[in-house]
Amino acid sequence: MNKLIELFKRKTFLIVLFIACSSFAVLLQSEKPVLYIIGDSTVKNGDGTGKQSLWGWGSFLGSYFDEQKIEVQNHAIGGRSSRTFLTEGRWDKILATLKPGDYVMMQFGHNDAGPLDDTARARGTIKGTGDDSVEIYNPIRKMKEVVHSYGWYMRKYVLEAKAKGATPIICSLIPRNNWKDGKVIRSNEGYGLWAREIAEKYGAYFIDLNNSIADVYERMDPSAVKKFFPVDNTHTNKEGALLNVGKVIKGLRSLNDCRLKDYLLNK
User: Fold this and answer.
1) I need a labelling partner for 194 at 20 to 30 A (CA). Which of 10, 21, 133, 229 fits?
2) CB 54 within 8 A of CB 230
3) Do 205 and 183 fall within a single domain?
4) Is 144 in contact with 79 (CB distance < 8 Å)?
5) Which residues are catalytic?
């Protein structure tokens, strides 16, 4: 009888130990850091499955990371600006789960130059990084809205991410396939500059995609670059997106004290 009781106790102990270890493993899995990606269609085109042969670079970013140690979530969505990603509530959903040790990588600018209050999109922002604002009637949302500068929205993402204990990383927008006098038209006096300024002023990491990718294009024949853009001069195919994500990774590796690169695979 005593032997049966002892055997029962041992089995019970092993079962309890197994459950505890399993629960601990699940807890560790759920607590691993998350890399959130936010942006527009050049970061995630459509549903991210390459329809019309169009891809954003964010669709390939996860393959560079050890996803046993970090989770990569691409929340970028086509047609959004730094303003509308916020006003549609997409940023609030990320904030609800953002925790210390997470990362937010952002790229906006392609859609920020649009009108503030047109009936098609109403997604534009005021140019620059100032605190100026204007109240408009938004015909899409059917309500009054105070519109701020591009820099104001980018600053909000940076500061709110940092307040949650997360690390913000700003990428300047990828260049379009637009040329002048044999050179790619860059954004060093526009959104690329403003993205850098916000990063430097508010303590975010910065990856200069606009210039690093433009440098590659200018070493190529323009006809070869054109092959990356099957539909227009903004959206890339898979080959173009892979070139772009490669520059994201190279830029990340160059950030001396950014812990995100510790999760990269040795590719």
Assistant:
1) 229
2) yes
3) yes
4) no
5) 41, 232, 235
Take residue 92 and report the two structure tokens written for it: 């609030």
Residues 214-264 have pLDDT tens digits of 999 999 999 999 999 999 999 999 999 999 999 999 999 999 999 999 999
**Same structural domain, 47 and 22:** no
Residues 113 and 237 in one domain: yes
Q: Which domain holds residue 12?
A: 1-31
Identify how many contiguous H helices and E strands the chain contains and give both numbers.
8, 9
| Cβ(37)–Cβ(43) below 8 Å | yes
Condensed to tens digits (0 to 9), the pLDDT of residues 76-111 reads 999 999 999 999 999 999 999 999 999 999 999 999
The sheet carrying 205-207 orders its strands as 71-74, 34-39, 103-107, 167-171, 205-207
Based on the fold, state whether residues 48 and 12 are members of the same structural domain: no
Interatomic CA distance for residues 52 and 235, integer angstroms: 10
Q: How far is the C-alpha of 210 from the C-alpha of 189, rounded, in Å?
A: 11
